[in-house]
């Protein structure tokens, strides 16, 4: 491997369309973004999906004998299958042979592997899974975390999510002074469940972030907030609802628009515009989720990820590395720790 | 008042468009549904918005000197303003002068007034606010509760919500053997936060309901469940997100569809079909929320409710009365209590 260029380790065996779509997205990223790709997994399966005339410069295949299936209990599987692709890929980051990792496989296994092999960042109690939602304002996404790693959150976890999310929003998503919101059921500081009430106070007193108050469900897509923190239970419900609602709306459009002769003509004329509607509602543009709080840059893709999502996730990973997000997270919390000593 | 016909007390002063839209919706309901309407509020303001040639049969105006504003602290306001329209309307139900009540005003005040004046049903610890979402299956709505009354829920509250929701789904929404889901972050019974894990066991053991397991965020709109129970924190976030997402999608359609000459032509041709899309995504068809667990039939409308929503809510209230939902709820829990004695 060369000494320049961001190196991304890819779990080629993870995801519903692995390895074909994973490899396709990674190869595109290598060409368009100039990253180095380390494909981790079954040698034969990976080679079988690399097109014959592919430029192999910047591409490396790292063999891994096993893979973790979607229905395995994550912690056990990660411990027992030491040579699973997710573990081998994670070790590349640990041993500084890669700068970031991406997997569209079992997200619980990716998280367990990251925790066991990379460990947590100093000052972080619990890593969180963050994901980027598009908002009503074009080019102004919002980062939601946690969307599933921690179902019961103590208020200080939410505070840690806010600090990590703020750094990520600023240095990867390019938002200056990110506005941080606390997901809640009212705007007033007297609203919410016990955890939210206490988290509100912690966030308001934290001088490292630009806390903008409570964000209600209706504010998630308004573009008024750059980062919204919540526990992993409500975040996961929201994420899965949001992913499904796009499909519901598209089905309603498919059922209603072509009705009648004028409907069929109008729909045919509008085809390119309807395609743009679909794109704006599509999550693929925004890549995967990220695991914030472990000692490495980890991106997690949806199990159903195909090449465009893989490409987007790798682009985000490159941004994170280029902008030294890990170093910023590490130093942020060193400061915090020395302050509290 | 006659001895036949369902009598609905309406808080004519509650809501952003009160009293004009409230009265308009109520008058339509009187004509089309044959219900008797008791409009509660400021006599002059109400009379001013009743069209001159209105048939006054089945219509009564019950004066109330005060009203509760949206920014008042609900419990205090309900206690201090004894003659507020919501209190006077609630007393009509309490004194058996009305069979049900509807208010689009301060929902916290409506809830406080219901609790203070009607009290809870026997066997119910906490009333819940339920709301009906459309699903991807036409004509198959899903009832979600709680959407905001109880931010921290004990597992047995969720069980009570399930039993009440099942009765409501069967006798008002017309679902035979309603399928009950527990909102959670995975399908397996080992998933979820502490409250969800314990609620799962209670729901599985309850023989009064048809428990169909965990419902994830993606299952909310799938039509696979007839009732989904959750705590009021996550339910409220979900409700407000769902209400907003329709608007976001409509804005994307408005921005993208008319672009270019073909876009303008196609959009013009599709106008009637786009209107149907808007209608299907509109909550107005499904009326208000209901307050389940108080000793009376109470419907609560969105503050922004206009005549069509008011009409829908009154139709639902009539269904609830016609199908003796309150009596069924009362007897259900008498059985439960005698079983546990």
From TrEMBL, chains A, B:
InterPro entries: FA_synthesis (IPR003664), Phospholipid_synth_PlsX-like (IPR012281). It is found in: Cytoplasm. Keywords: Acyltransferase, Cytoplasm, Lipid biosynthesis, Lipid metabolism, Phospholipid biosynthesis, Phospholipid metabolism, Transferase. Pathway: Lipid metabolism; phospholipid metabolism. It is an enzyme of class 2 (transferase). SUPFAM superfamilies: Isocitrate/Isopropylmalate dehydrogenase-like (SSF53659). One of its GO terms (biological process) is fatty acid biosynthetic process. GO terms for cellular component: cytoplasm. Its main location: cytoplasm. One of its GO terms (molecular function) is phosphate:acyl-[acyl carrier protein] acyltransferase activity. Its EC number is 2.3.1.274. It catalyses: a fatty acyl-[ACP] + phosphate = an acyl phosphate + holo-[ACP]. It comes from the Bacteria. It holds the Pfam family FA_synthesis. Catalyzes the reversible formation of acyl-phosphate (acyl-PO(4)) from acyl-[acyl-carrier-protein] (acyl-ACP). This enzyme utilizes acyl-ACP as fatty acyl donor, but not acyl-CoA. Homodimer. Probably interacts with PlsY. NCBIfam families: plsX. PANTHER family: FATTY ACID/PHOSPHOLIPID SYNTHESIS PROTEIN PLSX, PHOSPHATE ACYLTRANSFERASE. Belongs to the PlsX family. This is Phosphate acyltransferase. It comes from Anabaena sphaerica FACHB-251. The lineage of its organism: Bacteria, Bacillati, Cyanobacteriota, Cyanophyceae, Nostocales.
